Structures are given as C-alpha cells and as structure tokens.
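Design request, tokens follow.
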C-alpha cells in the first residue's frame, strides 16, 4: 500500500471531502477551502461542471487542483448519469476517454472507475500499467441489493485490480441498513484492500457516520455542496464522532 494516498489502509476511518463546482474557478476556490480542513482526501467531481470540457483539459485542471490541496491526496471522479452523475447524459459517451486521459497524465493521486462500465477492465488495465491507484466503484441509486450482491461487487473491484473498493447503495429502512452492515462486515473479513461502503439518502446517513464499525474505512462529508444525497457536512460529522457510543 502507498501511504501517501491512503495512510494505514486497513485501519481507521478516513474522510473524503468532495469538491463539487459548476466552473473551474469555483472548483479552485472550494479546493482552497477544503485544503484547510481536516479532510484526509479530496475528491474532485469533474462531472459537476456546467459545461463539460475536453478530456485533456480536465486532466490539466486535475493537476492544478492537486497542487492546491497538497499534501492531501486528490481523487478524480467522473460519475456517469446512471450512477448519480451531474453532467449532461450525452457527456457520458466520453467517460472512458476522460478517465484514460487523467490516468495517462497522472494528474490525480487516485482515479475513480465504475466497475460496471463496459470500459472498466480496459481502464483498470491502463491504471495498473501506469501504477495509478484506482477506486473501483459501484452505485445503486434506487435500492439496496442483497448482502451477497454487495459483497460480490466489492470483491469484483478487488479482482479487477482496484486499490480501493467502493459500494454506495440506497437504503429505505432498517432492514436495508442491516443488509449494508452485514455485507460490509462480510467483505472486510476477506478483502485485502480498503473498503468504502455507504448508504445514500436520509436513511443511509447513519452508515456514513458509523460505517467504520462494520468495516468501511472511509466516508464522505461535505464542505459546501454535497456530492450525494444524505451526505453530512464535515463539521457535523466531526461533532457526532466526539460523542461517546453507549456501551
């Protein structure tokens, strides 16, 4: 494991703070704000730009943002519409081109790759060849799959060569939260890479706070606009973590 981008990979919970902005100038401004916080990693949600830019340009901007947030590692993410992205659907046709450009330019410390995307094996291959760590992600914006499906998705990310495996689902009740916790615990027992397991929406908020008790090793918290439904702001998350859990 490379401690420069994920200290103590099988240990404490990490906080990833996303930069969500509609313009490059706004992204740079928020990156400067996040750089001064207690965030462990910073994510640039490039799909948040109001006007999609060429892949090569996005790679250059990622490099600028990485310099701003250093020494915090930068995670580059382009999320497709199917998995909760914000860019116009037509821009998703360039997903593989965008991710490839950032990988080849090596302008991010980690790069998100959606493992259900048809180009995922190719992108993971490029990342491995270049030595760029990847967060292999899998999102369900509607529901919570079974324990087996969630655990299998995390295992698939690892088998494809991801450095970190991430699953985000949408729980609707306590049973769904139990499913998510059980899947996270099951996956953690066998995983050899860090895991991120979160629930989205209001019901899923508790998993963002206490997911580390079940094996998830990172959560997302906002400074400014959140990148997903149910995401707490960083100050609130830190306050909650200071409250002792009952015996």
């Amino acid at each position: 494991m490379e401690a420069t981008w994920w200290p103590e990979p099988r240990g404490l919970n990490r906080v990833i703070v996303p930069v969500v902005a509609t313009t490059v100038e706004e992204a740079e401004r928020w990156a400067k704000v996040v750089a001064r916080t207690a965030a462990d990693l910073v994510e640039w949600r490039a799909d948040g730009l109001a006007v999609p830019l060429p892949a090569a340009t996005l790679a250059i901007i990622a490099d600028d943002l990485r310099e701003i947030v250093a020494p915090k590692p930068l995670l580059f993410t382009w999320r497709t519409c199917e998995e909760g992205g914000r860019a116009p659907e037509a821009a998703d046709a360039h997903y593989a081109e965008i991710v490839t450009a950032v990988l080849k330019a090596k302008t991010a410390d980690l790069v998100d790759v959606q493992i259900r995307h048809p180009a995922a094996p190719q992108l993971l291959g490029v990342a491995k060849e270049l030595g760029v760590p990847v967060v292999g992600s899998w999102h369900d914006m509607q529901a919570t799959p079974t324990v087996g499906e969630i655990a299998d998705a995390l295992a698939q990310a690892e088998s494809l060569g991801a450095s970190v495996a991430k699953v985000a689902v949408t729980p609707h009740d306590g049973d769904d939260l139990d499913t998510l916790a059980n899947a996270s615990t099951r996956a953690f027992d066998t995983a050899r890479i860090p895991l991120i397991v979160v629930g989205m929406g209001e019901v899923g908020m508790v998993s963002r706070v206490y997911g580390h008790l079940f094996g998830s090793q990172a959560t997302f918290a906002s400074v400014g606009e959140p990148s997903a439904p149910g995401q707490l702001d960083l100050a609130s998350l830190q306050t909650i973590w200071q409250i002792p859990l009952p015996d």
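Comment from the thread starter after seeing the answer: thanks! The chain has one domain: 14-241.
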